[in-house]
Amino acid sequence: GENVEQHPSTLSVQEGDSAVIKCTYSDSASNYFPWYKQELGKRPQLIIDIRSNVGEKKDQRIAVTLNKTAKHFSLHITETQPEDSAVYFCAAGSQMNYGGSQGNLIFGKGTKLSVKP
Amino acid sequence: DAGVIQSPRHEVTEMGQEVTLRCKPISGHNSLFWYRQTMMRGLELLIYFNNNVPIDDSGMPEDRFSAKMPNASFSTLKIQPSEPRDSAVYFCASSSGGGARRTDTQYFGPGTRLTVL
Fold it and tell me: Can you tell me whether residue B86 is helix, strand or coil?
């Protein structure tokens, strides 16, 4: 089955610096890669996602890159701010064929990002 | 849209008691997922349903855990009997899939924090 590895497990940066979180996946059939942000005591919330037909996607200070050949994808946060401090999860999923229904997501273990003011 | 609704938000019970967690997915979503989150194990998928049918329950830890989805707008996760090691935050998530609006984005509920004494 699919396995998703996420690194680093903790990341501390100075406000204004960039942060990069990397994930690798094992199942070449995976074609959907979302990133979730979870603040302390709250639910995971989608911040950006990418599908396998795209190599890069940006949304303001957040970008995600995908290398299908190497089976890895990364989250880039530029100009970090204290409110970016949270746990970030990557995930990988595939459109499994159960009569048109979809499959599940496999999540990485998470990266705790701390942005120091 | 009210989002995914879970109840109760907090549950404290004694070992041996039955616990029932409830989830109402986003209207129109046809997939529902139950997750358990702990510091040690991270985010674990317990079971997921598509069109009210359980697709994969391999993540259910043992026979003490059971889940049902009697209709498209309601699901329960039951633990009987509960044990202290079941203490965790349980998240329900839903997503839409299939047809012209294929998407694998999962939207999480606020979670139920379960404490078993």
Answer: helix
Question: What type of residue sits at position B55?
Answer: I
Q: Which of B43, B97, B107 sits opposite A102 (nearest CB)?
A: B97
Contact A110 B111 (CB under 8 A): no
B 72-101 near A (Cβ less than 8 A): 91, 95, 97-99
Cβ atoms of residues A21 and A36 within 8 Å: no
CA A35/CA B113 separation, integer angstroms: 23
CA distance B18 to B66: 11
pLDDT in tens, A22-54: 999 998 888 889 999 999 999 999 999 998 787
SS3 readout for A37-54: EECCCCCCEEEEEEECCC
Nearest-CA residue of chain A relative to B34? A104
Q: Are A112 and A9 in contact (CB under 8 A)?
A: yes
Tokens matching residue B100: 């012209």
Cα distances from B16 to residues A1, B4, B87, B91, B115, in angstroms, run 34, 29, 13, 22, 12
Three-class SS of residue A69? coil
- Residue A31 has a pLDDT of 85
